[in-house]
Backbone:
């Protein structure tokens, strides 16, 4: 059975997709640690990150770096942090979190957020990505 992430990527479930290419997608989490918290997910469903094809994982890492730079712009934070957790959904994902401090990435900070707040944060992130020249990776946006 397809994971919830696969269903969001396929458009079968609603979700805030801020990046999509042939190898991965970036979506918001409904329980962000901080506003702008997203997950970089391979298109092909793979449970454990160490089973992801090395080329795809390398691409996910590059996309994570782009997302981190966009988060710094969009949310005015000094850096973004990344973490691979992955027990909650059996589909590899890299969390990328805008951060003012190390505490920003503490799992206990994750809280259900109102859909409107998530949507506003994702719009800010999309704008930053677009201004960085990545509009072609944002679903529904043209160059």
Residues:
């Amino acid at each position: 059975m397809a994971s919830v992430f696969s269903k969001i990527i396929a458009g079968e479930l609603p979700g805030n997709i801020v990046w999509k290419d042939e190898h991965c997608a970036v979506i918001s989490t409904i329980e962000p640690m901080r506003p702008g918290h997203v997950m970089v997910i391979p298109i092909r469903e793979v449970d454990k990150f160490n089973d992801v094809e090395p080329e795809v994982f390398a691409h996910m890492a590059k996309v994570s770096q782009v997302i981190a730079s966009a988060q710094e712009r969009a949310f005015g934070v000094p850096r973004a942090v990344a973490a691979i957790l992955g027990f909650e959904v059996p589909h590899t994902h890299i969390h990328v979190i805008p951060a003012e401090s190390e505490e920003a990435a503490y799992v206990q900070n994750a809280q259900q957020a109102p859909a409107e707040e998530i949507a506003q944060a994702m719009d800010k992130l999309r704008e930053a990505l677009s201004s960085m020249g990545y509009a072609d990776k944002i679903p529904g946006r043209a160059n």
